[in-house]
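Narrative summary of target 7.
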Amino acid sequence: QAQLVESGGGHVQAGGSLRLSCAISPSIVDIRAMYWYRQISGKDREYVAAFTFRNTTDYSEAVKGRFTIARDYAKSTVDLKMDNLKPDDTGVYYCNAESRRAPYVYWGQGTQVTVSS
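Modeled conformation, tokenized:
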């Protein structure tokens, strides 16, 4: 059973918006932080944004001011709202959970985001 499931990817024109959502399984407990990463073709997976257990957020310089990460505790999701998308944002976006308990790190299967110029 998948413990992190991403949804919301798709194809959008430059300047458009998308909202990604990551459903968190109740089997993942004692979460320290939730993250979004992305992998652009031919490059290593890179950090995008974080939401910590203190309800603080952090963003990479590449997306700061355009992306917003938010956690919905009632729905057990972590969302990534992406505005003013650029072709350079094209890639596979992954949800990540960091827990205080083994196995400590969880990954989703990824969702494709394609931004055309």
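The mean pLDDT is 96.
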